[in-house]
Amino acid sequence: MFMTIYLVALAFFLLYKFWTSNYSYWKDRDIPHIPPVFPFGSSRDLALQRGFQGDIWSELYRKCSSQPFFGVHIMRTPFLVMRDPEMIRFVLASSFFNFRDRQPFKRSREPLTHHLFNLEGEQWRALRTKLTATFTSGKLRGMFPLFLSCSESLDSILQTNVNKVIDVKDITARFSTDIIGSCAFGMDMDSISNPNSEFRKIGIEIFKLKNSTRIKLALVNTFPDIMKLFSPRFTPKSVEKFILRAVSGTIEHRLRYGIKRKDFIDLLMILKYMNGDKKKSDDIPKLNLNDMTMEMMAAQCFVFFTAGFETSGSVQSCCLYELALNQNIQNRVQKEIDHMTEHYGGLTYEAVHKMVFLDMVIAETMRKYPTLPSLTRFSTERTVLPSGHVIDKGVRVLIPVWALHRDPLLFPEPEKFDPERFSDGNMALIKPFSYLPFGEGPRMCIGKRFGLLQTKMGLITVLKKYRVEPTSKTEIPLDFSPKCILITATEGPIHLRLVERTDHCPS
């Protein structure tokens, strides 16, 4: 009996010593930090995911308000948190090469993870250079009829819900699913009229955080070197099979019948089968496009889907929520929509592009509700910070976007919804690298233009004919879910009343 107790105590002692062996990491390097406490590290709530991640990081951010950066431990893993926009510029831009990767190891077992977001080094650079062509103004103009078609489907559903309380979170997510499906997969998802469509289910499945996933994420953060050996799976097999089948089926069909739709899959096919632009540049690394397998093509479509499915829908729903609470701002947006559609003879690409105040409203929505509450980078080289502090190779760096966007020193009255922050006259007052809805630097979101167009089309479709108003069921303020660790998502529905406009100017 005594021996059993002794062995258990010894095992616990050894675990404790191992677990806390690097708890002096930041102290040894003379870096300001929040002291870790066994076993959760610097924040029990963060380790146990008890609360919305944006709020938790904001609390830690405020604790170190006098520091340009500070260290924390999540469980036993050290993270360096950047507070000062100049330090953020150093990580995302000026020393980009040393912080170019987002994760500590590749998940090679999962074909759908071999996409632009996860690729590293020269392979990332080459593919990024090629895929950038997808999101030029010319390419988006070519896709615009696909956006219009999805907008018409959305309008038909809105017509059946006039003077009713609707969940704008659900409706905008279904609209976003159809846009992505049409532009990335060349398929009619019909999610707007059919909430139970297969693509809608797949989108929900991707962001569902199961307990098993929580455990794997905790293990990866706590034992990254050991977990490299196991390469745990995060993408459900059902999702992987569905995406691979959808992409391969679409490509085979287009090759057989010579179909072109001016969408994302068309570009991937050009890259693989026609080798794209024959012109080469010495400073652009060559990507062996003949080695771009069907799995790699599917991976690019997969990240297109995941990046746009929840994020754009979230921005649209939060924007409609704020417009419902700020009727004067909603009136101004609607006047601009009416004016531009009348001026350009309908809802054209040019009309949408010229809606400047709508751009300001969306920018303020993404300031108050950034879709990614934080950005992470992984140091690939030993780096000396401008302060003289040394960052070792392999250290995780975190940028608390939610906290930055709600810092009153950077954005006065941060809880106030004020689109005028983003007027031409006021934009110069925003400190560079303090506003990061799409990230910054060479790895900023490649689909920024696409996402903004998608968001504008959803909002215009609602606001050109209808008003949104709060109801007794509208939760004020919004409550954000702790279950979504990667993105900003409300805990429940966003209920608003849809009212037909009496001042609508038909186009």
Automatic annotation (TrEMBL):
<keyword id="KW-0560">Oxidoreductase</keyword>
<dbReference type="GO" id="GO:0004497">
    <property type="term" value="F:monooxygenase activity"/>
</dbReference>
<keyword id="KW-0472">Membrane</keyword>
<dbReference type="InterPro" id="IPR017972">
    <property type="entry name" value="Cyt_P450_CS"/>
</dbReference>
<protein>
    <recommendedName>
        <fullName>Cytochrome P450</fullName>
    </recommendedName>
</protein>
<keyword id="KW-0492">Microsome</keyword>
<keyword id="KW-0408">Iron</keyword>
<dbReference type="GO" id="GO:0005506">
    <property type="term" value="F:iron ion binding"/>
</dbReference>
<feature type="binding site" description="axial binding residue">
    <location>
        <position position="445"/>
    </location>
    <ligand>
        <name>heme</name>
    </ligand>
</feature>
<keyword id="KW-0503">Monooxygenase</keyword>
<dbReference type="Pfam" id="PF00067">
    <property type="entry name" value="p450"/>
</dbReference>
<dbReference type="InterPro" id="IPR050476">
    <property type="entry name" value="Insect_CytP450_Detox"/>
</dbReference>
<dbReference type="InterPro" id="IPR002401">
    <property type="entry name" value="Cyt_P450_E_grp-I"/>
</dbReference>
<dbReference type="GO" id="GO:0016705">
    <property type="term" value="F:oxidoreductase activity, acting on paired donors, with incorporation or reduction of molecular oxygen"/>
</dbReference>
<keyword id="KW-0349">Heme</keyword>
<keyword id="KW-0256">Endoplasmic reticulum</keyword>
<dbReference type="InterPro" id="IPR001128">
    <property type="entry name" value="Cyt_P450"/>
</dbReference>
<dbReference type="GO" id="GO:0020037">
    <property type="term" value="F:heme binding"/>
</dbReference>
<keyword id="KW-0479">Metal-binding</keyword>
<comment type="similarity">
    <text>Belongs to the cytochrome P450 family.</text>
</comment>
<dbReference type="GO" id="GO:0005789">
    <property type="term" value="C:endoplasmic reticulum membrane"/>
</dbReference>
<dbReference type="InterPro" id="IPR036396">
    <property type="entry name" value="Cyt_P450_sf"/>
</dbReference>
